[in-house]
Amino acid sequence: QNASSGTTGEPSATRWVSKRVQGGSSGTAYPGDRGASSRGGGSGGGPYAGKNNDMRRDEATVRVTNLPEETQEQDLRDLFTPFGSLNRVYLAKDKTSNTSKGFAFITFNEKKDAQKAIECVSGFGYDHLILKVEWANKPQNQ
Prior knowledge:
7 strands
């Protein structure tokens, strides 16, 4: 679909180009992904079964904004997997055009991995845009 950019597909100091954009594989590693699946957890509702674990999952979720329209779920998996195991990737898409709405939520299995992703990816050049990565649920004073 898109022309190859001639880069390696690995994150560099200033820019990352997905393998899909380079003309590589466009397959999805987890077809039909809808929440918890076989990766990272056993049976019985995945690694975060129960109310307390739902809270834990929310604590390890980051929001990524300023994504290009061409972004696919697999691109996000490729970008964020080096920081730790992913529990869920949700890419918001337009229902009619099926293109990215420019934001996504990435849930890691560990909060420390999400923190590292925020530190490393926020401000990172992605295709022609600068990504913003922050906690999905900002801490609230209770």
